[in-house]
Amino acid sequence: MNIVIVGGGLAAAKATEELRERGHDGPITVLAGEDHLPYERPPLSKGILLGKDDADAATVLPRSWYDEHGVTLRTSSAVDSIDLEAGVVLVGEESIEFDRLLLATGSRPRHLALADDSGASVAYLRTLEDSAAIKASFGPGRRLVIIGGGWIGLEVAAAAREAGTDVTVVESLELPLLRVLGPEVAEHFAELHRSHGVDLRLSASVTGIDADGTVHLADGESVASDLIVVGVGVEPVDDLARAADLAVDNGVLVDEGLRTSDPRVFAAGDVANHLHPVLGRRIRVEHWDTAIGQGQHAARAMLGEDGDYERLPYFFTDQYDLGMEYVGSVGPDGYTDVQVEGDPATGTFRAYWVRDGLVVAGMHVNDWDATDAIKARVGTTV
Ligand SMILES: Cc1cc2nc3c(=O)[nH]c(=O)nc-3n(C[C@H](O)[C@H](O)[C@H](O)COP(=O)(O)OP(=O)(O)OC[C@H]3O[C@@H](n4cnc5c(N)ncnc54)[C@H](O)[C@@H]3O)c2cc1C
Predict the structure, then answer these.
(1) How much is the pLDDT for 166?
(2) Rounded to an integer, what distance in angstroms lies between the CA atom of residue 156 and that of residue 41?
(3) Res. 184: pLDDT tops 90
(4) How far is the CA of 39 from the centre of ligand 1 (A)?
(5) CA of 377 to the centre of ligand 1 (A)
(6) Closest residue by CA, ligand 1 atom 9
(7) Under CATH, which number does the domain 321-377 receive?
(8) Atom from ligand 1 closest to the CA of residue 39
(9) Which of 60, 165, 176, 328 could lock onto 361 through a cystine, CB 3.0 to 4.6 A?
């Protein structure tokens, strides 16, 4: 059985590894769009951006692994289209046959036309090159404006501050991370950044950007910058699937077992909009752990194993000396109560989001033994 994997991230690499570990000895071709071995992205806004790790730290499997396991890995090989009827993918003029196809094309940063069209220095963070370029802009006396107080924006803020950079974060909501964490816990992150010298502009919106990097805000103030980093979310790279007439809606629609609307084609990671059997709704998760778990699950599914992908979303972040893990999903119905255990002022605490008596998500801050207990509590009643 001829297996083709499209993508060059964590989901693609983990699927490839799992296929060989599960005994698949037929041909595997990995078509990766970037000029790198498949790599994971969390270090791009942490170890690599802080200068503690080099780019190799992000590589999932070394080149020798692909060679030793008889996997054809082609980098700089973006797939142009999929012909489902012929059972091929096209890279330029070349067509590559598949019996099973995995789409692991990930996501890309949402762009802000106001910034892109301004003529100022503007960056987004998704690739190793982006990370290197942003890191090069850090340093005492340098001025960074970050648009968007989400995970990426705050991690960049932390790395930039540690390098002595002047940092302003512009966030349209009243608190950073407000939608994910709610006011009780989001305030903790706001205070963390303020205490490290970040100028947080909350309930603030950008009305214009000058070519010299001056960022104008709706309240009439303006902030000078040498670089503007935009972190306003990502969108799934589902163009190939849409053009091939696979079912697509905010990502490639997959069933509980990660199958697309074509039984030969699967999707995993950021691009997959999954019918989650435990949550009972569709969810497209943009987290490292899901790329691993879904990549592996899709590999087994391509080999004919039945079963649903049931893992709950899990996320982690590191900012300054704060480490956090979060399990579960509050979802569109929100929560009715937040239960905080421990005193956030000590820097170590747990929090649970509860909806009508059901724990829908939990997290800890700097309480690394808590992970299993939190996972066990999500889905239980209080
Ligand atoms: C800076 C940063 C920090 C992050 N930190 C965390 C964190 O701390 N915790 C966490 O849980 N998550 C984190 N994430 C999210 C996590 O990295 C993603 O969820 C994960 O990368 C998804 O993996 P993926 O393989 O699905 O997609 P991606 O990593 O996006 O990889 C997709 C790959 O497919 C390639 N591709 C796209 N189209 C084609 C095509 N037509 N042909 C061939 N190749 C193609 C792309 O070039 C890309 O290399 C972070 C993300 C970023 C950007």
Answers:
(1) 98
(2) 13
(3) no
(4) 8
(5) 29
(6) 316
(7) 3.30.390.30
(8) 29
(9) 328
